[in-house]
Design a protein that fits this description.
Layout lengths: L1 E6 L6 H4 L2 H8 L4 E6 L12 E3 L7 E3 L1 H14 L4 E11 L2 H7 L4 E6 L7 H6 L3 E4 L9 H12 L10 H4 L18 E2 L2 E2 L9 H19 L7
Parallel strand pairs: 1-2, 1-6, 5-6, 5-7
Antiparallel strand pairs: 3-4, 8-9
């Protein structure tokens, strides 16, 4: 998988992309992640990328020319399965969407900023708009990092145990069951006997029951469908 991210602040990705699972995926050659500084296509001496909105009002808008130039350059080099814009009014990101996107070969993500981007970019270039939650961030970089992390960990071969990704929360619209490790007894707090029984069928049934119980208590919205 290749992910191209268009951003005004590529340095924001150094931490999340330089460690742990994403770094492992890059080291294995399973994921390629490229950061593109939008100001490279800025206008004039000062590499301008934003301007006032024609309608007036507070805040600046990302200009069409730099964004279009960067997108067109990338599109001239390869075909993209999706060109994603991180936006508060996009489709809410969830596990089924992550599962689907993780099967694609080439993705482009445009990180929004200021009061947004010129609407013509959304009309003529963007194929999918994604929101990571019903709140507003200062920019789309954190959202792009979340999306990238969620997709990369699903690529076969990235995790040491591929079953791990399939048993994550939300994979079956349920929250994961509680998990325990050694010691078996800590201050009188015991690990449930069923997990030590060795009966795989009963353990799986217990896990499902706990997942269902937790989902009903904590995220009943997941069961509405």
């Amino acid at each position: 998988m290749r992910i191209d991210i268009i951003t005004l602040f590529p340095e924001m990705f150094e931490g999340p992309f330089g460690h742990s699972i994403i770094q492992r995926a890059k080291d294995k050659g399973l994921a390629e992640i490229y950061l593109h500084q939008l100001r490279d296509f800025g206008i004039g001496k000062h590499k301008q990328v934003d301007d006032y909105a024609f309608s007036g009002g507070a805040g600046m808008v990302m200009m069409i020319e730099p964004v279009a130039a960067q997108i067109e350059k990338l599109k001239s080099e390869r075909e993209y399965d999706e060109i994603i814009y991180t936006s508060p009014d996009g489709e809410l990101f969830d596990q089924p969407m992550a599962n689907k996107l993780s099967t694609y070969e080439n993705l482009m993500i445009l990180c929004g900023h200021y009061k947004g981007i010129d609407e013509r970019i959304r009309e003529h270039y963007i194929t999918k708009e994604i929101s990571v939650g019903n709140y507003v961030l200062s920019g789309g970089e954190l959202a792009a990092a979340i999306i990238t992390d969620s997709l990369v960990r699903l690529i076969p071969g990235v995790l040491g145990n591929e079953v791990s990704a399939l048993s994550d929360s939300f994979q079956n619209q349920l929250i994961s069951p509680p998990v325990y490790t050694r010691p078996r007894n800590y201050k009188g707090w015991e690990v449930p006997d069923i997990l030590l029984s060795g009966n795989e069928k009963m353990i799986e049934e217990w896990k499902y029951e706990q997942s269902l119980k937790r989902t009903k208590e904590r995220r009943p919205d997941l069961l509405e469908d």
